[in-house]
Write a structure and sequence with these properties.
single chain, 99 residues, mainly alpha, 2 domains, 3 helices, elongated, Transcriptional regulator, membrane, transmembrane, transmembrane helix
């Protein structure tokens, strides 16, 4: 049976993950370093979440605010120079066909 490149990569990932599961379970239950088997993954997860939160905060702090809507020419043409939300035009009633 000939496998494609993607199937070979998938099989490699599957085999690697199965081996790492066995190694982790041995490390957690049968090693004298089992405390580290809990501490290191938790530490890595906490650091990842805090790193993502810091990145989001940095991005929000360094991104300039958007232009007000009245300064965008495309939107000024659509509203006819009026401010958004203050349009006082009444909806027109559609004529029914056949009446």
């Amino acid at each position: 049976m000939i496998m494609s490149k993607d199937q070979a990569i998938g099989a490699g990932i599957l085999a690697t993950s199965a081996i790492l599961i066995v190694v982790y379970l041995w490390w957690l239950f049968f090693s004298e370093w089992s405390w580290w088997a809990i501490v290191l993954p938790v530490l890595m997860m906490v650091l990842a979440v805090l790193g993502i939160a810091g990145w989001i905060g940095y991005t929000m702090a360094t991104t300039p605010p958007p232009k007000p809507l009245e300064e965008i020419p495309e939107l000024s043409d659509v509203t006819g120079g009026k401010e958004a939300g203050t349009s006082e035009s009444k909806p027109t009633e559609e004529k029914k066909e056949g009446s």
